[in-house]
Amino acid sequence: RKEVEQDPGPFNVPEGATVAFNCTYSNSASQSFFWYRQDCRKEPKLLMSVYSSGNEDGRFTAQLNRASQYISLLIRDSKLSDSATYLCVVKPGGSYIPTFGRGTSLIVHP
Amino acid sequence: EAGVAQSPRYKIIEKRQSVAFWCNPISGHATLYWYQQILGQGPKLLIQFQNNGVVDDSQLPKDRFSAERLKGVDSTLKIQPAKLEDSAVYLCASSLTLLAVTSTDTQYFGPGTRLTVL
Q1: With contacts defined as CB-CB under 8 Å, which chain B residues touch A103?
Q2: Do A97 and A1 contact (CB within 8 A), yes or no?
């Protein structure tokens, strides 16, 4: 089993839709979780960190489920500009080594 | 604030040739990372430096890849000799500290070097 798994998609949604992605991780000692966004042929950029209590940033909501070992990203009211690949990143506790998932591709169409 | 700089942006070589990539991190960032991103996959960490010391290089193919950060600032990644499967984007990133778990202390990526091995 891979350390960090994501459904590669693509998720194809109309503007205004709500879409959610999950990311599962295998190391139960994982402590730090992040979502990065990567536009086509560009570098990844931090979208948001994922806190134990869940957190929200505008239209984006991230949640952590430790019992089932997954994190999620919810995007409400999708915009065309949200089209990108969303990468999940996990760090085990006591480790500084980040592990990236393969990413989930989102395409928002008019 | 200047971002992470990388050069060259593109490189095409034949298999068995050598190639080197350069990275200049954000000023003041102690931690530097080199990733390999193959098309359709997420970035894979090759090596992580803290100042001029290696934190982790467990996924670096040491028979052909080498990296250094001699003065704790710039870094170079070398491949010698290159194989077809080395075709990928090589991303350099830096962070203020090893922790890199906050919005201000997080990884910032450079634009990458796209390597094609023929």
Answers
A1: 41-42
A2: no
Residue with tokens 């998609």: A9
B19: its two tokens? 């190639």
CA distance A48 to A79: 18
Q: Which residues of chain A have pLDDT under 50?
A: none
- What's the pLDDT at B106? 85
* pLDDT one-digit tens code per residue, B46-88: 999 999 899 999 999 999 999 999 888 999 999 999 999 999 9
Among B48, B101, B112, the residue with its CB nearest the CB of A49 is: B101
Longest dimension (CA), chain A: 45
Residue B66 and residue A96: Cα distance in Å, rounded? 21
CB of B44 within 8 Å of any CB in chain A? yes
Q: What is the distance between the alpha carbons of residues A64 and A72, in angstroms, rounded to a whole number?
A: 7
Residues of A in contact with B98 (CB under 8 A): 96
* Distances, alpha carbon B50 to alpha carbons A14, A67, B44, B90, in Å: 44, 33, 18, 19
CB within 8 A of A3, min separation 6: which ones?
A25, A26, A27, A90, A99
Q: What is the rounded CA–CA span in Å between residue A46 and residue A38?
A: 9
